[in-house]
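Try it yourself: sequence plus phosphoric acid mono(formamide)ester, in.
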Amino acid sequence: MRHILSADQFSKTQTEEILSLAAQMDKQCHKGKIQKVLQDKIVACIFFEPSTRTRLSFETAALRLGAGVISAENAAANSSSYKGESIEDTARMLCCYADAIVMRHPKEGMPQAAAKVSTKPILNAGDGGNEHPSQALLDLYSIKKSLGRLHGLKVAFGFDPLHSRTIRSLAQMLTLYKNNEFIFIAPKGLHLAEDFLNGLKAKGAKVRLTDNLPEALSADIFYANRLQQERFANPSEFEANRKKFVITKQLMAKAKAKILDPLPRIDEIEPAADTLPNALYFEQAQNGLYVRMALLRYALDI
Ligand code: CP
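Structure, out:
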């Protein structure tokens, strides 16, 4: 059994193993011949924070592989956590029913706390502004599928690195690969903390900040993300900054970069741009299914 808690936990070899398994899952799905290797397993999905893609793609992944699914959506209100049950006791209970536990929580460190007492693999589906490892793996898969490599890339990240767990996790995972350069673009006050940026540099990545959107769009990949409204202490700061940077159809049409976005989108990409050939974000979300099929197999060692 393997917990999936952090982007930082993976070696390059393990990452390649998961991406290769995801490619097999991708092929099996397209051929319509999926091996039901999780037929006798139950996957629990417990989400204390809203989700469309992560929860439903993990559930689809489990079902496609033949597993059963038990699901607690809106768990903050509808599970016994509402009555004051601890995350550790919640995890102990889920271990009685399921073989793997997919957990999202608005508070940083909760899936990690659950993993300390869990006898079944915990898959972190996002903990506050901290980590989103399954998203980082599907982002890597999407980049590799599109560009054929994960090294020697210029990757721009916008527009809320400070609060974005997807940006933090992807940037960390890209440091497994050589000669990558990161460009961060954000309104003032929304850049990553200096110590996180220094950590990326210490792992060999070139890092710089910019406020020039057309220049950032000349990277190989532009990883856009909405301002994370739910993590702003001051709502007026969110409102003041939410449209500071917008990738319009016109800008995307001129961009060299392939555009990724973990979604949901709010203002960061104009919907009119969605039909352009470098708009990869819906395909990226589709790749989430294959990567999460691979992750369930990896976590259960099947
Ligand atoms: N990318 C992502 O985590 O989306 P959801 O919040 O819809 O799961």
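One thing you can check immediately is this: The mean pLDDT is 97.
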